[in-house]
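Deliverable D4.2, example record:
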Amino acid sequence: MTFFPDPKEKRLESEEYLDFIRTLPCVIIGCRREATPHHLRTVGAGASDYEAIPICVFHHRECQGRNRSFEETRGINLWREATWFLVRFIREKGWK
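Output generated by the structure prediction step:
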């Protein structure tokens, strides 16, 4: 099984979801800086917009390209957080 997307497959994009992520504070507890979406995989590798988390510029620089070490240092699971943001988005939209 491979986790890399099929090159023929169009990546999932959602400006609505990215706008939702922009309304949230940085994923790091206690940080109240304005956040922007950070894709957990690179867009070039086929990352879905639904794999984005809110993170401020300061923490984004610390995390960029080093998700695992960032997670260990900060005691956070970025994929779990991304899942919770997606669940919250779905609930707020009232989707079933």
